[in-house]
Amino acid sequence: MVKKVGIRFKSAGKVYDFDPGAFVLRQGDSVIVETKQGLGLGIVAVPPAVVDDLPEGQVLKKVFRMATEDDLMQVENNLENEKRALAYCQSCIKKLGLSMNLFAVENAFDGSKLTFFFTSESRVDFRQLVKMLVKELGVRIEMRQVGIRNQAKLCGGIGRCGREICCSTFLDKFGPVSIRMAKEQCLSLNPTKISGQCGRLMCCLTYEYETYRALRSELPKIGKPVMTLKGEGKVIRHNPIRYRIAVRLDDGTEIEIGPDEIVTESQEEHADV
Questions:
Q1: Contacts of 30 (CB under 8 A, 6+ apart)
Q2: Which of 73, 102, 134, 174 is the most buried (most CB within 10 A)?
C-alpha cells in the first residue's frame, strides 16, 4: 500500500505524483516539493489517496513542506524577474538579428535558472545570445524551442467558442487531431473554421468524435439506395445528433427521416400482399 498526492506546477500543466508523507493536504493547498531541478512550488490537484502499488521502477519524490508567505512572495518576485528577462532578451534578439519568436520566460523557484521559450521555422544559433544573457542576468540560461501548439498553451487566448482555449485551462497534454474527425462530425472543412489560435486543428474536435462515430455507424451510409414511404431514393446527408438521415427521392425531392422509417424488403412484401 502506497500513499500519493497529485501536484500541478502550472494552471493547465501535467499532474505529477508525490509522496505526501505525514502532511494533511487538501485540493488547492500550496506546497514545496522536491524536483529534478531542486525545490519547487506546486498546487495540490489531486488529494492524497492510498493505492495498492506503483508502476515498476517509479519512485515518488516527497512533499518537502507546506508553502509559507515568504514562498508566495518569492513566486511574485520570480514573475517580476521573468518580465525583465523577457524584455532584455527580446532586445538582444533584435540586436543580433536572430529569426526567433521569444514568447515566454520561466524562472526556477530558487531563481537560479531562467528558461526562455521560443518558436522558429529553423534551427537558431543562439550561443552569442546566451553569453549576453548570462552576463546581464547572472544565472543559468536554457533556451527551449517549442512547437506552435505549446506556444498557444503557454500564452493562452480566447477560442472561437468565446471561452479561454482548452490547452491553457485544463488539457495537460496534446492528443492527435485529424481532419477525419471534422468530416465525421459533418463540420465545414474550411481551415479557418476548424483551426485554433495555434493554426492547427482545434483540440475540441476530439471531444465528441467517438460519439459521432457510434451514432453514424447505426445509420445507412451516404449514397446508399433506400426505400421510404414516399418512394425510392438515396441517402445524401446524416444528422447524427437527431438520429435522422436526409434522402433525395428519385423525383428530386429531399426528405428527412429516421432509420425506422426506411421500408425493408419484408415490409414491401407485406404491403404487396
A1: 41, 42, 43, 44, 66, 67, 71, 72
A2: 102
pLDDT tens sequence across 121-157:
888 899 999 999 999 999 999 999 998 888 888 888 8
Measured between alpha carbons, how far is residue 267 from residues 22, 158, 227, 270 in Å? 71, 53, 10, 5
The three cell numbers locating residue 225: 439506395
What is the residue whose three cell numbers read 414511404? 229
User: pLDDT for 6-58, tens place per residue?
Assistant: 999 887 778 888 988 888 899 999 999 988 878 889 999 989 888 887 777 78
Closest-CA residue to 102 (of 88, 115, 114, 86): 86
Q: Give the residue from 137, 125, 81, 133 showing the smallest Cα distance to 100.
A: 125
Q: What percent of the chain has pLDDT over 70?
A: 97
CA–CA separation, 209 and 177 (whole Å):
10
Tell me the three cell numbers of residue 260. Answer: 425506422
Tell me: pLDDT of 270 over 70. Answer: no
Cβ-based neighbour number of residue 5 at 10 Å: 26
Write 214-219 long-range contacts (CB < 8 A, 24+).
215/240, 215/241, 215/243, 216/184, 216/240, 218/243, 218/259, 219/243, 219/245, 219/259
Bridge partners for 87 per DSSP = none
Domains detected in the chain: 2-67 (no CATH), 73-146 (3.30.300.20), 151-209 (no CATH), 225-272 (2.30.30)
Q: Is residue 145 within 8 Å of 120, Cβ to Cβ? A: yes
